[in-house]
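To fix ideas at the outset, we first show an illustrative case, written as a sequence plus integers encoding its fold:
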Amino acid sequence: MAASIWKIAEPLILFQFIALILWEESISLTTILTPWWILWYLLSLIYWRLILQVIPESILRNAKLILPTTFGISILAGFLPFGVFLSIQRTLSFMPFFFLGYYMKNKNIFLPQRYRPLCLLFLIIAFVVPLFCPQYLGNLRHADPYDNYYDAFKRLFAFCLSIPMSLAFLNVCISRPWFARQGQLTMQYYLYHSIIIVCGTSPFLILVHKFGITSLLLIAIIYSIAITIVIGVLSYIPIFKYFTNPSVILKKLGIFAR
């Protein structure tokens, strides 16, 4: 358990330190304990894994009790005065998805191949329709308390939409060796894409504007593909993985031992 927690805590501490040095205007106890941008997920993941250790096994086995409880906590969390500090609001808000993944890890969630086109169609509709009515989804970041009582219904609606979207996405994913290998590098993709976005957005926008590309959607698609290719290439470089968890290489060198 300690090893799995450290595997998450190490990149959290490392990248939080980098962010504080490079991108924070001032360093205080609040900024230190407020995860930078995407790092909230790593801190929340640590919380969730610790919660698994706290809940008695007899209760944890009861998914029919745990899942409705976590969804209830998630909806009610928006009424609590917690924000981005220590990632408390997001930890409570997104907790149902962690437990859904926990209970689904040994389940077959894949549909027959004949349903793949329907899954793809559903994803397209689910992505396009909200573009024309974003007010019904609310703030999908779930980082801050509700502005009003209606936000609770918006969060519930967003969850009801995101769960079938997740299942549909898994059913349309391409099953090829290269993609399977990338699935083992989700931590690297998650961490490094943020640095590429922060450092490379301005040069990239200058480049695409030279080619006369003005559509924000097309720019986002091109940028996403470019980031995926860059990280995919970097994944073949050993230091790419070691920088995420430096203790791995230090342990091999006999410098770091736990």
Summary: DSSP finds 14 helices and no strands in the chain. The two ends are 13 Å apart (CA to CA).
